[in-house]
Design brief:
There is one protein chain. The chain is mainly α. The chain has helices at residues 11-21, 31-41, 49-73, 85-97. Residues 1-7 have low confidence and may be disordered.
Length: 101
């Protein structure tokens, strides 16, 4: 990592600039999928495809975390990594809706 110190800025401020730049990454998706997202978010309240994609990913990851926590609190035999048929179908449907299947 390259840390640039700008003239006239305290060193701590330059460090903060680097932290801000590292807080986001670029994820590449197929252009046809991006176009679908653009169509989906029209008149939806989302200000950009990025906002929608972040919302969907947080929702999916939160759901996975909740299922893992429930499985860990359950009978103890499952590790939270096992899927039943309904879980698998739900994932397949979400992937299909996103254009991957």
């Amino acid at each position: 990592m390259l840390l640039e110190v700008s003239p006239g800025k305290p060193p701590g401020e330059a460090t903060r600039d680097v932290a801000i730049r590292e807080s986001k990454v670029t994820v590449k998706i197929p252009r046809p999928l991006y176009r679908k997202v653009q169509l989906v978010i029209e008149n939806s309240g989302f200000s950009s495809p990025t906002d929608f994609i972040v919302f969907v990913l947080r929702d999916l990851l939160g759901e996975a975390d909740r299922k893992s926590a429930a499985a860990a609190a359950g009978a103890g035999a499952t590790t939270g990594e096992e899927f039943d048929a309904a879980d698998l179908e739900a994932v397949k449907q979400k992937l299909k809706n996103l254009g991957y299947l």
